[in-house]
Amino acid sequence: MKKTVTHSAGKLSLAAGALALLTSCQSHGEVPARTITRQVIAATLPPDVTDNHPHAPAIRFVLANNIMIPERDGLFHPEVAVTRGALLQILMDAAHIEPTSPVTRDPFPDVSRFHPQAGYVLRALEMEIVRGYQDGPFRGQFRIDRIVSLIETLKVLLLTQGIDINNLPRGTSFTDVPAGEWYEGVGLYAQQHHLVDAHPDGSMGRDDPMTRAAIAEVIWRFLHQRLAPRLR
Question: How far apart are CA 131 and CA 12, in angstroms?
Fold first, then answer.
C-alpha cells in the first residue's frame, strides 16, 4: 500500500531542500555555476518519451541542462513515481553536489551509512537541506504525493528567486489547497502563473503520484517565466 509523506511549515521537504541546493550553493561558490539554455531542441529524447508526450518539451529542457538525467537503462521513466530518497539523489546530482565520502556515520536511524544513498543523505543533512521526521527517521523510501511535492518545490523556487512566500497574496486557488493552510499563497501563485494545471474538478491532485515528468514540467515552466531574461 502506498504511504503518504506529509510536511508542516517547519519542515524542509526533500523537493524543497534539493531544489534550493542549486541556487544557494552556486551563490556561495560551493559548486560550479551552470549555464541554463533555452535551446532544448538539441536534447535527444529517450526511447520511452515520444515527441508527442505531453511533457516532452519539459523533459527536453531538463535533459539539455542536466537538471535531470535518464536512468541507468537509458530511459527517462516519465510516469514513475519518485521516492524521497530518489528525488534527493536526482536533484543533488543535477546541482553538482558531491555526496559525502566516506560516510562514517548513519545519517538517520533508517539510513545506514552502508545505504546506497547514505552519502547524498548525509551531505544534505550536513547542509541543513533535509531534516528527519519528528520521530527521527528520514523515510526515503516513501513516495511523495503530488500536492506536497509541488507546493514544496514551488515554495523553494520562489525563495531562490528572492520572493518571500510569507508575503504572497492569499486566496482561493485549487480545491485541495485549503484556506488558511501555510502554503495557501504558494498555491495561488502557482495557479496564477500557470505553473500547475488543475484537474477538471479544480484540484491540484493531492493523491496523484509525483512523477519524474511532473517534476520536469514544473521546473521548466518556472524557469522559463522567472529566468527568461537571463537565458541565452
Answer: 6
Distance, CA of 65 to CA of 50 (rounded, Å): 19
Cα distance between residue 78 and residue 47, in whole Å = 11
What is the spatial distance between Cα 63 and Cα 43, in angstroms, rounded to a whole number?
Answer: 6
The pTM assigned to this predicted structure is 0.70
Burial of 133 (0-12, 13-18, 19+ CB in 10 A): middle
| Torsion region of 11: left, alpha or beta (phi above 0 gives left; psi -120 to 50 gives alpha) | beta
pLDDT in tens, 107-141: 999 999 999 999 999 988 887 777 888 899 999 89
Q: Do residues 224 and 62 make contact, with C-beta atoms less than 8 angstroms apart?
A: no
pLDDT at 156 over 70: no
φ, ψ dihedrals at 121, nearest 5°? -65, -45
Percent of the chain with pLDDT over 70: 71
Whats the size of the chain, residue-wise?
Answer: 232
Measured CA to CA in angstroms, residue 187 lies from 9, 149, 193, 195 at distances of: 14, 12, 10, 10
Sequence-separated (6 or more) residues with CB below 8 Å from residue 4: 142, 143, 145
